[in-house]
Amino acid sequence: MHDDRHLVEGRLERAMRQFVRPAQYAARTPLTLSVWHAPGEPVPVGQALQGTYAPFEPGTVWGKPWSTSWFRIEGRVPEEWAGRHVEAVVDPGFTGQGPGFQAEGLLYDAAGVPLKGIHPRNRHLTVAAPAVGGEPVHLLLEAAANPTVLRDFEPTYVGDVLTAGDRPIYRFHSADLAVLDEDVWHLVLDVEVLSELMHELDADRGRRHDVLRALERMLDALDLHDVAGTAVAARAELADVLARPAHASAHRVSATGHAHIDSAWLWPLRETVRKASRTFANVTALARDYPELVFACSQAQQYAWVKEHQPHIWERIKKAVADGNWAPVGSMWVESDANMPGGEALARQIVHGKRFFLEELGVETEEIWLPDSFGYTAAFPQLAKLAGAKWFLTQKLSWNQTNKMPHHTFWWEGIDGTRVFTHFPPVDTYNSQFHARELAHAERNFAEKGGASTSLVPFGWGDGGGGPTREMLERARRLRSLEGSPRVEIEKPSKFFEKAHEEYGAKAPVWSGELYLEMHRATYTTQAKTKQGNRRCEHALREAELWCTTAALRDPSYAYPYDALDRIWKTVLLHQFHDILPGSSIAWVHREARDTYAQALAELDEITAGAVRHLGGGAMSVLNASPYARSEVVAHDGQLVHVTVDGLGTRSLAEAAGHTRGPGAHAAATRESDSIVLANEHLTVTIDSDGLLTSVRDLGHGGREVLAPGARGNLLQLHPDHPTQYDAWDLDAHYRHTRTDLTDADAVELVEDGPLRVSVRVTRTFGKSTVSQEYRLAAGSRRLEVVTDVDWQESEKVLKAAFPLDVHAERSAAEIQFGHVHRATHANTGWDAARYEICAHRWLRVAEEAYGVALLNDSTYGHDVTRTPHERGLGTTVRLTLLRAPHSPDPETDLGTHRFTYALAPGATTGDAVAGGLALNLPLRSAEAPALTPLVTVDDPAVTVESVKLAEDRSGDVVVRLYESRGGRASATLTTAFPVAGADETDLLERPLRPADTSASGLALSLRPFQILTLRLRPA
Asked: Which of 381, 423, 446, 743 has the most other CB atoms within 10 Å of its CB?
C-alpha cells in the first residue's frame, strides 16, 4: 500500500477546521444587550440588579483594566427551535490567551442566582434541552475586565489598578442563542480522540493505520456541505475503532477533575474570590450532566470565600460532596509556599485546612496536595502524619532544570524519619485536557513501570481557574478503555492512593530529605517586604498567644481573643500562598500585602499589650517570648540597659539589670591606624577604612580567627540579574559570572563607644542606591549584629552579603521548620550543583569538628554556600541574598527603603544558632508587669518550645507544641507555673492520642531527633 498518511491527515485537518467544527452550532440568533459599568471595585449581584442599564451593541469596547461591567442578556428561543438543544453562547471579547488570564464572567439568572462561569474554552449555558420554543431568556453577566499581565515577562504597569490606566481593553464580540447539533459535537470529539491517538502511535503499529483508515472512511461518509445531515453516518465509520478495548497491560490512569486556582498571582486577592465562584459554579453545573465527575479541590480559604459571597454555590458544593462528585483535598488553608513558612505556621496551615473541611463538609482529608509550590521542606512528612494525612502529592518537580526525579510513586522520608506515601504524576501537568500526547507522556514517563501500573492525572483548566469541561468528560468516556491508550478511570484521589499503596507500597523506593525544586530559587528573596511581613507576623502571633495564655491563666476575667487570633492567623496563612510569600505576584498583591501585614502587626501589638495588662501590673519589666534565657542589652527610656530574663518569662527591669553583667562584661572601641576595633569579653572585631571586617577573633576559642586569610567579611556584592525567563522567580546560575564588590565607603563612623554597646556605622552609595550598615557588639554578646538600612533603586540586580569563613565545612546546616537540613558545600553531583541557592529560616551554620560559625537573620531566606580555597587551606563562604530588582510581574519590585538585621555568631553550636535565631526574631518587650515564673519550662535545651496557646475548642486547656531541635535524642521534664489535672499527647488538631507521662515533678518527655510533640494540659 502506498503511504498516503500525510494526505489523509491533511484532508482531515482542513475538513475539521473549515467545515465540521463550525457546524457544531446549527443556527444562531443574537441576544439583546444592555450594560451597567460598576464604579470602582466589584459589587454583589443584588446591587447590580439595581443598576441603571444602557443599550449595548456587540463590537463595542468595554472594560478598563480590572473593572467590572454587568450585561443584561435577553431574548426568546425561536418557536422553530422546538425539540432542539438550545444554548446561550457568550463571547465578551476573549483573546488568544487561555482561561483565567483575560476576561472572565459569571452568568446569573434574572433573580440573581449564579448559574455558570464563562471563559474562552467554556462559553455556553444550556437554556433548554430540548426546547419547546418561545422560552424567554433573561440573564445577567458579571464580566471582569482582567488584563493579560504576563507577556514574555516584559515590564508592564497593568498589574496594579493604580497604574493600569483607563483605556478599555476588550471589544464585546457576541451573545447569541444557538442550537447545539449534538451529533456533530460528538463527531468532533470522536475525531479528536482518535486523531490525537493516531499521532501518538508509532508508524509501524497496525493500530495507527486502522485508525487512519477509519478516519478516511469517516471523511468519505461525510458531506462537507451537509455536515449535520451526514454526521451520524460519519460517526458510524468510527464506531469499531472506538470500541476496541485497551490492552490488559495498558497503563491505568486515575483521573480527577481539578482547577488549580492561584489565590493571588496575576490578579489580586479580591479577584480570586470571583475566580473560585465561577469555577465552582461550572463544576457543580457539570456534575448534573456527568454523574461520574469527581472534582478534587484544595484550599479551604477559597471554600470560605465562596461560602461568604456565594451562598447558592456553597449549597451546591455541599450537595456535590454528599453525592460523591466533589472531593475536598489538600488539608491546608491555602496551597502555601513550602519552604519559607515557619514551623508553627505550616502546622497551622494544616490545622485550619483540615478543621474547615471537617466542620463545614464533614470530610477528614487524608492528603497534602501541593501541585505547584516551589519545592518542599523535609519537615512535611512528619507534619502530615501528625495531622492524620497519609499521602502527599506534587507535580512541580517536573520543572527541574538539571536533574529528573527518579521516582513518581515513592515514600518520602522527612528529617525525623517519618515517611509519607507520595505521588508525583508522570503526566507532568495538573491541567490535563485528556489529550493523547498527555496520556502517552504519562505512560512513557512513568518511572515505576514493572513495579506499579497506575498514576494520577488531574484534568481541568487551571492556574487562573476554569476547571473541567464537558468536552473533557466526553474524552474520558471514550478513553475509559481504548486500544493504544492508557485506561482512564475518573475517581477520587483517595481511591488512587489506596490502589497505588496496595499495589506498590511495600516495594516503593524512598526519597530522603527535602524535595528541592531546581528552579525558582529567587523566590527566597523577591519582594523582601512581603517576606519580612510574614516573618514579623509569625513571631508576633507566637508572642501574642503566649502572653494571652498567661493572662487567661492568671486573671479569670480576661477574655482570650480566640476570634481575633483565628482571623489574624488565617490572614497570615493566606499570604503564605505560593505566589504571594515567594514574591511572584503582581504589584497590586504585594502593595496590599504590605498594608495587611502592617495592620496585623499593629493589632497583634494591641492584643499582646492588652494581655500583659492582665498579668497583674507592677514595675516596668522585661518580657521574653523566646523559650531560652536571654542576657542582652536593650534600650529603655533612651538608655541602654543590660538585662537577663528566663525563657518565656518576665522579670522586673530593675532586677534584670541588677543581675546581668558578670565580671569582665564590657564593650569597648579603639582606633588602630585606619581601623576601628570593637571588643567585648567574647569577640574582637576589626573594621577597616572601607567599612569591611578584616578580623573577627573568637576569644572563647583561643582567639581563633573566624575570617579566611586575606579575606574581608560582610562584603556586599552586586550581580547583574537577568533570568532567561520568570523574572521574579528565577536566579539563574549565570548571574555568578559577573559581580561588583562594593568596597568604597562614603563614611565609617564610630557611633557608640561602650560600655554596654559599641557601634560603627558604614555608609555606601552605588548606582542609584544607598546602604547604611551599623555593626553592633554588645557587652556579653557572642554575636556581631549588622543593622542594615537600604534605599534600593537598582534595576535587575541582586545584592548579597558575603562572609568568607576559615571553616572547612563539608556541609551547611540550615534551619527549616522544626529542625534543620544539611546540604553539601561541594558540587560533586548534579544534585549538589543545582543547589547553588538555598533556603534557610533564622540561621545557617557551617562547621568543622568542634567549631562552627552561624549567620542569623531577621527576615532573609536566600543564601548560598561555597567552598573557597585560600593560602592556608580551604574555607567556606556564606552569603545572604538581600535584595533583587526584577521587572516582571511587578516592574518596581523592591524599590524603596528596607531595614533588616543579620548577625555573625562565631563559635556557635547548633543550640546557639537555634537560641540566637529566636532572640534576633523575638526582641525583648518592656512593659509594666509582675515578675513571673515561665508558664512552661523544659529542662533540656535541645527541646525547643514552639508555641503556647489555649486549645481551639475553647475548653481552657493549654496546648504546648515543642520539638527536638538539635538532631539528637532528648530526655526532658516539662514543668508548668500552673497546676495540671491531666495531660495528653495530641495530634496537630489537638485531638488526644495517648496520655502524657505525668508525675509530681512534671511531664517526662523523650524525643527522637527532630520529633514534634503536641501536649494538651488541663489546668486544675
From this structure: 423
